[in-house]
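Posted in: Structural Biology > Protein-Ligand Complexes

Title: Requesting predicted complex, adenosine monophosphate in pocket

I'd be grateful if someone could produce the 3D structure tokens for the following input. Sequence and ligand are given below.
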Amino acid sequence: MEPRVLQPVNDQNTSENAGTPKKKELTLANFDIGKPLGKGKFGNVYLAREKTSKFIVALKVLFKSQLQNSGVEHQLRREIEIQSHLQHENILRMYQWFHDKKRIFLVLEFAAKGELYKILQREKRFDEKTTAKYVYQLANALKYCHSKKVIHRDIKPENLLISLIGDLKIADFGCSPAVQWGQRTTLCGTLDYLPPEMIEGSFHDENVDLWSLGVLCYELLVGNPPFETESNSETYRRITRVDIRYPSYLLRHDPRKRISPDAVMTHHWIVANHTPKDPPRH
Ligand code: AMP
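-- Reply #1 --
Done. Output follows.
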């Protein structure tokens, strides 16, 4: 893999280089490494500070040998390609990446409050205000992704991080090749969040993310996902039948009947519970 500089790590916080995207090759020596933030499948994530700019980031360290053994180098390459080109307040920024002989380092935006999944475990469920905020912000990020022809396909609390000021950030694009709509039909998501069309192996498009948004909204309010059962086959059955008694414009079997991200953001329940910093313009 050739080293490539996607964006200067200190592009945001020095007046010196403001507006001039000066590209420089980074190495591990550029960083002071802090506490571990978490453990992933292929390596660890550390708090880190770029020495010159003092810019705080999360440094994700992936071992090449593990990536090779699992045959996921291609997937990682795509993930880097996608995430580094998405710039939205509710999508975790990937500033740069670099590598040495054994490892690949991803320089990521630091999300101080960590995984939404862990916060939910701690709090059990959220009130309507908090849920409406997260659903609004996720709809906003999905609207942006879909406008760039990127389907996430794996929206779930484990893949959502929360910043210091409590904003939601989509963090993981490992399942979302930027493909023509409907090209891929492989199962990628977690069972509880999978839409009927993916379970049934039929055509699917960006509307899969809107189903998952509906599942997330339910789980944040109630404390567990709507189709959860003891067995996978029973969960499959409940999803395909949309076996749920709960008013939802997102949990619709027909993907075309799910409301759009825009309609989510202006839905009366969202509007009644959340006032965005930058209201949507129409
Ligand atoms: P991952 O390998 O992406 O699953 O990351 C492992 C764990 O590290 C996650 O569950 C988070 O708790 C933590 N983590 C990953 N990325 C970040 C980040 N950008 N900011 C803060 N914590 C993170």
